[in-house]
Amino acid sequence: MLREYALDRAKEDVLKHMKLRKPQGDSLKAFDEIYRDLQDPLPRLSQGDLIKTFREHRPSWDFERGFPRMTCALATGVGKTRLMGAFMAYLHKAGESSNFLLVAPRTTIIDKLTRETQSGNSDYIFVDPSFVEQPVVYHSGNFDSFDPREEEMGSGPTIWILSPQAMAGSSKERSLRFHRESEYLGSSPQEYLQSLEDLVVFFDESHHMGHAGEGEEVPAWTQAVRDLSPRMLFAMTASPRSSSDILHDYSLPHCLRDGLYTKGVRVISQERPDEVDDWEWDKVTIRYTLERLRTKERAIDHFQRENDTDEEVKPVALLFAKDTSHAEDVTRWLESQLGSEEVLLVHSGMNESDYLPRLLSVEDPSNPVRVIVNVYQLSEGWDVDNVYVTAPLRANATVQGVIQTMGRGLRLPYGDRVGREEVDKLDVLCFGKQTMDEIIDRVLEEGFGSREDQEVYMEVSEKENVEEEPERRDYELTPDQDVEITLPNVDWRRPRVDLSGLTLPRDYPGEPVAIDMSDTGTVEQLDGRPGFEREAFLSTVTSLAVQRKEVVGSVTDASHIREAVSEYLEDEGYGEEDLVDYDPEFVARLCVKAIDNILEEVDPEYVRSSGEMTIAADPIEVQIPDRDDVPVHKSNGWNSNLKGVPISGWSQCAHKAVPFDTKPEFKVAKVLDRSTEEVDWWMRNLRKIFQLQTPAGGYAPDFMFLLQVDGEKVILEIKGRHLADGDSSAAIKARAAEAWCEAMNNLGQGPWRHWFVLGSDAERAQSIGDLRSYASEWKRAHAI
After folding, report:
1. Is the distance from CB of 151 to CB of 185 less than 8 angstroms?
2. Do the bridges between strand 264-269 and strand 513-516 make them parallel or antiparallel, or are there none, so unpaired?
3. pLDDT tens string 532-572
4. 3-state secondary structure string, 669-736?
5. What is the residue-wise DSSP string for 100-139?
6. Tens digits of per-residue pLDDT, 333-345?
7. Distance CA 733, CA 700 (A)
8. What are the residues whose beta carbons fall under 8 Å from the beta carbon of 451, sequence distance 6 or more?
9. Which of 17, 244, 292, 734 has the fewest Cβ atoms within 10 angstroms?
10. How confident is the model at residue 464 (pLDDT cuts 50, 70, 90)?
11. Largest Cα–Cα distance of the chain, in whole Å?
12. What is the distance between the alpha carbons of residues 642 and 631, in angstroms, rounded to a whole number?
């Protein structure tokens, strides 16, 4: 009864004095529920009885280490250090243990824990010195002078703070000190800790703790912890490697959905054009990072003035470089933009004295640092609350990079959210190759977003996985008709297109878009756009436009495009020295549209060249979905599940079975096949059996067929209205096909005809006459 009373009192006092957040309090209560069932205080309890009690409560846990290990999986920013203090205070105040070992894998974490075990620190691990007195603290800097007799001078606990390297690291000198006999102890620190009957170990950032697979050797420093034979081990992490020993789980997705203990996270996306080189895109990303930082500075300044708060917060941005050389290049460029005082470089190749004083004081408003450049040196253990913008650069600009870096900016500078969006949110830039749709998919896969978002995503993705990503295999389409047409070769004559008067249509690109990690259902459009240097922008847009238009082939043409883009920028108000904050892809599309407008007025021409071409119904190797019912008979109809699946049962088709991509294609095939009195044969233009070169690029119509009356040979293209209307090249290709047919007819190979039919018309067509009529309507509408 006395022990139960002591535990109850200790728990209530910890909850009262240490101001625990709910996830911290829930973790303590989960431990108390198990621990109070022990029959004796920890020092008098056998290890077998201790494990037995824990196993009764958590039968799935692994106890092969010889002691209970329990993981508290708390999101970054919720307070794992405070929770360690709560566990220690609970055990100490209840008289269960006064000896604790804190193990942490990084120097920055060791230094932080050492500072926070001092009662005068604002982040004192026990919060209130009157609740738990100043502990006796030993670490690698002072454990040589450890004297257990000094412990009797105070009533606080004894805390050892060590790195794995200090116990069994690669540095022999450091680890030997841990194993060397002390003049005060008569034994080594290791042997002393082994002798304690109440030693409880806490492993911070425990996902670094080595795990041995089957047949693998346990890492030396993991074994060093086991060799101490602690009574219990608390593993503290935001990223648990396994769910096998979770005491309490409060994940980052859960935390962001609750919106209580950390900043919200806004992921800002801008897809990188392929033609922009790494360094230019770095500058684009960094400029936008600075723009977002200025937005945060204004919002925080306004909040502080409006609320007359004494707590001054200075926001900073954190950039994650690819390697040390990249980090140094980024730093030099930033210093040329901001000045050296506002930029801080941190990486493993530097002496700590070169950066540590400025880094440790980065929260101080008098510290001028606004941007920190690092190479994942600050990924853990560096806990400040004024990081407001992060940007992983280059290959790291992915959703995984977002998740890895956002933990550095989650902490709240005012302790709680203040109800101002820009003050309460961390901005993470994802300026890489992923589209916003791809980013949302990956965010949902990682468990973020609202629960409704996740449920919808699971329903959709499971369906899509079946329909869109089936296994595929090779399949041979075998001929069923003797079809072979030999034609004289004709070449498309590149027209002389005057681009000297090229004018871009007035249109405007949108700003970068963003999502909240806790609510992916809403895509936000942000003010401001990434900025390019004018010369880089002009070169990129010109290169993109030239690549997209085969008709553009000379230096002169490229210079005209460049001039048109330059005039466009001037009309938009950009001076020679101004940064251009438009998307190069967007402006390149305007160039293509402008060139297409000119090409629509140019009559394409095909002229006789040497040699011949053959169009024949030969065997065709294709990739099809891997299913057992291939081919499927046409009587089963067609739906999206049959996309790419060979369909059989035709009487007029040149092959025994052919696949289709859309329902209108299947509908046209049925019309052709049942028109036996008009159609001699028809074939699908698969693997580009027949392809024309046109001013707008290659053109491979969907069908070819032979009409019995007059022996007309028809090439037929089907396109959805949204594609036909939205693609300025559709009419150019159609006009080129008409010119090719005219060339064949003039060479005595006709009659050849080209029909262009909209998908909606194809679906309602009942006869060859209907198809001819719909094709004629489209030609008239487009003046072809």
Report:
1. no
2. antiparallel
3. 888 888 988 888 888 877 656 666 678 888 888 898 888 88
4. HHHHHHCCCCEEEEEECHHHCCCEEECCEEECCCEEEEECCCCCEEEEEEECHHHHHHCCHHHHHHHH
5. EEEE-SSHHHHHHHHHHTSTTSTT-TTS-TTTSPPPEEEE
6. 999 999 999 999 9
7. 10
8. 257
9. 244
10. very low
11. 113
12. 10
User: In this structure, are residues 512 and 270 in contact, taking their beta carbons and an 8 Å threshold?
Assistant: yes
Arithmetic mean of pLDDT over the chain: 86
Q: State the number of CA atoms in the 13 A half-sphere of 368 facing the CB.
A: 7
For the stretch 257-297, pLDDT in tens is 999 999 999 999 888 877 778 998 899 899 999 999 999 99
Q: In which residue are the tokens 């010119």 written? A: 739
Q: Which residues contact 307 (CB under 8 A, 6 or more apart)?
A: 418
pLDDT range class, residue 155, cuts 50, 70, 90: confident
Q: What is the CA radius of gyration of the chain?
A: 36
Q: What pTM was computed for the model?
A: 0.67
Phi, psi of 611 (to 5 degrees): 85, -175
Half-sphere exposure in the Cβ direction for 646 (13 Å, CA): 27
Q: How far apart are CA 218 and CA 220, in angstroms?
A: 6
Q: DSSP labels for 436-499?
A: HHHHHHHHHHTT-S-HHHHHHHHHHHHHHHHHHS--EEEEEEPB-S--EEEEEEEEEPPP----
Dihedrals phi, psi of 421, to nearest 5 degrees: -55, -50
- Residue type at 366 in one-letter notation: S
